[in-house]
Design brief:
Elements (H helix, E strand, L loop, with lengths): L2 H9 L3 E4 L4 E7 L5 E3 L7 E3 L4 E3 L4 E7 L4 E3 L2 E7 L4 E4 L4 E13 L2 E3 L2 E9 L4 E3 L2 E2 L3 E3 L4 E7 L3 H4 L11 E3 L6
Parallel strand pairs: 5-7, 6-8, 7-9, 8-10, 9-10, 10-11, 10-12, 11-13, 12-14, 12-15, 13-16, 14-16
Antiparallel strand pairs: 1-2, 1-4, 2-3, 16-17
C-alpha cells in the first residue's frame, strides 16, 4: 500500500468548498499528488468544517436548534437557531426560516430574516428575500437580494441619546435604468 492510498482513504469523507464549482465537493489526489476537487480538478478549494448536515433529500419543518456548525443541502422551514456557530446553505439548499447564527454563507435560496453576529455572505448562486441584521454583509456581484440590510449592532440600539447611529441600507433588485 502506497502512502498516497493512505492519504486518499483519510480524505474520502472530507467535504470541501470548491471556488471554481461554487459547491461542496470531496477531495481526490491528482496524478502529481496534489489535493484537488474531485469534480473539476481545481486546487482552488477550502476545507469546509461540517459537523451537522441537512442532506438534499431531507425536509425539516419547525424549529431547528443546533449547537455546532450546520450545512443545509435540503429544505428547512421554520426557525434555525445556531447561537455562536456558522450556517452554510449549499447551492441546492432551500430555507424559509428566521435564522440566528454567528455567520451565514448562502449559495442557495433563503426567504426570511437573518440575524448574524459576524457575517452574512450571499454568493453568486445565492438568492435572499428578506431582511438581514448583521455588522458585515458581503453581496457577491450578481447575487440576488431583495430586502433590507441593517448593519447596526445590537449594542448600538441601547447606546443612548447623543451617540450617532448607523443608518440601515435598503437594497433591491429591479430593472436597470
Amino acid at each position: 500500500m502506497s502512502s498516497h492510498s493512505g492519504v486518499r482513504r483519510s480524505l474520502e469523507d472530507r467535504i470541501i468548498l470548491c471556488a471554481d464549482c461554487d459547491a461542496t465537493r470531496t477531495l481526490s489526489l491528482s496524478t502529481s499528488g496534489s489535493l484537488v476537487c474531485s469534480t473539476c480538478g481545481s486546487d482552488n478549494w477550502m476545507h469546509l468544517p461540517m459537523t451537522a448536515n441537512v442532506k438534499k433529500s431531507i425536509f425539516i419543518k419547525g424549529e431547528l436548534n443546533v449547537e455546532e456548525d450546520l450545512t443545509v443541502e435540503g429544505r428547512v422551514e421554520g426557525k434555525i437557531e445556531l447561537k455562536d456557530h456558522n450556517l452554510w446553505i449549499s447551492p441546492h439548499g432551500n430555507v424559509m426560516a428566521e435564522i440566528h447564527a454567528k455567520s451565514v454563507i448562502i449559495a442557495g435560496e433563503v426567504i426570511g430574516s437573518i440575524f448574524a453576529s459576524e457575517l452574512v455572505e450571499i454568493r453568486l448562486s445565492g438568492a435572499v428575500k428578506g431582511n438581514i441584521q448583521c455588522p458585515r454583509v458581503l453581496l457577491v456581484d450578481g447575487a440576488n437580494f431583495t430586502g433590507r440590510i441593517d448593519t447596526e449592532k445590537t449594542a448600538d440600539l441601547t447606546a443612548g441619546p447623543g451617540l450617532p447611529k448607523v443608518q440601515s441600507a435598503r437594497m433591491g433588485q429591479g430593472p436597470s435604468q
